[in-house]
Amino acid sequence: MKNTYILSTFLFLLLAVNHSFAQISAKAIRVSTPPNIDGHINDAVWDEAFKIDQFVQREPNPGQAVSEKTIVSVCYDNNYLYFAVKCYDDPKKITAKEMARDVSLGNDDRVQIILDTYLDHRNGYWFQIGPRGSIGDALISENGASMNKEWDALWTGKSSINSEGWEAELAIPFKTIGFDPKKTVWGMKLIRNIKRKLEASYWPVANLNTYRFQISDSGLLEGLEGITQGIGLDLSPYVIGGMNTKRGEKDKYHFDGGLDMFYQVTPQLKASLSINTDFAETEVDDRQINLTRFSLYFPEKRDFFLDGSNYFKFGIEGDDNNPYRNSVSPYFSRRLGLDDAGNMIPVRYAAKITGTQKSWNIGMMYVSDERNYGNSNLSVGRISRNLGRQSSVGVIGTWGNAVSNAENMVGGFDMKLATSRFQKNKNLAFTMFGMLSRTSGINDKNSSWGADIAYPNDFLYFSLGHYEVGENFVAGIGFVPRNNIKASYGSFSLGPRPDKWGILQVKSGVGFNYLTNFSDVMVTRELNISPLGIRFKSGEEFSYSINQQYEFLAKDFLIYPGFSIPMNQYTFWRQNIQLTSAGGRNLAGIANFSTGNFYNGRRHDMKLTINYKVAVPLYVGGNYTQSHVFLPEGDFTARIYQMNLNILVSPTVTLYNYFQYDNASEKMGWQSRFQWILKPGNEIILAWTSGWSQPGSQWIMNDSALRLKLKYNIRF
Question: pTM for the full model?
Answer without folding.
Answer: 0.84
